[in-house]
Amino acid sequence: MTRKIDGLVIFIWVYLVIVLPSLFILYFIKISSPELNAFSNLLKTTPDFPAILISTIALSTIGVCLSLFRRKMSLIDILELLKQEKVYFVALSLFISIILWRFFSVFDTLDYFGLIIIFVFFFFFLPILNGYLNSVDFNKVKLFITPSVKKPALSLIENLLFGLALLLLLHTSVFALDAQIRAYNHRKIILSRYPTITNHEPKIVYYGTKVILTGRRFGWKGNIDANLRHSAGKINIDLWTDTEIIFTIPLHWKEGKIEIWIEKSVEAENSKIKKVKSNKVSLQLISRDNGWDEGDEAYFKQLKKLDKKTLRINGYAPE
After folding, report:
1. What is this structure's pTM?
2. 3-state helix, strand, coil in the chain (%, to 5)
3. In the record, which residues are listed under signal peptide (predicted)?
């Protein structure tokens, strides 16, 4: 069992120093010179940067943990590094952090704090990775496959097949990860086309009340197939822009809770047109003809919190 663990440590090292750098090179060729027809098929199947980077970090972590378990290396204390080594790792960590933060949007929503997080991670990770990479060399690979002690040819073949199978498994895992990341990113792109209602007011309405919906990606009425709907069907619109919709509560709706959403046609997978729905929002429709009750009380109480535009179009504020 311990020999298998040692083999895992060794062949993870082989994959890290031979295969992953090659994938990095192919990736940068793909994004910088996509017109290279001679390598078009190879470049198309090359994993993207996120998959290669995550695989590098994950495999390095596994290799380090197994090496520590087998006591093939010891953790490197940052404080014990030479001054030149500290400067080197600071510069390299800062360079990688800026690339990831600026060009690949890693933690960019956290602003400069995200950059600091990435920098601190790599400042501690890179020395440990360097220690792992220096703990293995090609002589150890050779000794694992063909040990100095004479063994039957069948044992040598077994060691070689073990190494090849492990490399194939690692390579398959990288491509499987890349496929998952691409599918996730594609899903995000599709979802980014969905309309989203972020606010609506008033939420308690009478017949004839004008309601304002605000959000994003509503589309432009007349240019695309988009409709505002509720359970009874389509809704007539007073104003429609990509970020705002205004409509009037019609007289034929039933009192009570009303759910409203936007339906819009978007381009989905394989350039097919797909009808999608936004999130649903609720209104409470009350009548003016039932005498004064808690519904009317709640309606006028909400006026204190409504936007000036909502008040104005409903006649509660001057033009």
Report:
1. 0.69
2. 55, 15, 25
3. none
pLDDT digits 0-9 by tens, 305-318: 999 999 999 998 87
**Distance separating alpha carbons of residues 302 and 241, to the nearest angstrom:** 25
User: Omega into 195 within 30° of 0, i.e. cis?
Assistant: no
**Among the listed residues 18, 92, 10, 103, the one whose alpha carbon sits nearest the alpha carbon of residue 56:** 18
pLDDT one-digit tens code per residue, 233-265: 678 788 988 899 999 998 888 889 999 998 888
DSSP-derived secondary structure for 25-75: HHHHHHHH-TT-GGGHHHHHTSPPHHHHHHHHHHHHHHHHHHHHHTTS--P
Q: Where are the alpha helices (DSSP H) in 83-152?
A: 83-103, 112-135, 138-145
Nearest Cα neighbor of 29 from 16, 20, 39 is 39
- Asked if residues 159 and 145 have their Cβ atoms less than 8 Å apart, the reply is yes
Sign of CA dihedral 56, 57, 62, 64: positive
* Tokens, residue 101: 């933060």
Q: Which two tokens stand for residue 112?
A: 């400069």
- Residues whose CB falls within 8 Å of the CB of residue 24, separated by 6 or more in sequence, listed in order: 52
Domain ranges of the chain: 2-191, 196-313
Cβ neighbours of residue 71 closer than 8 Å, sequence gap 6 or more: none
Domain 196-313: homologous superfamily in CATH: Immunoglobulins (2.60.40.10)
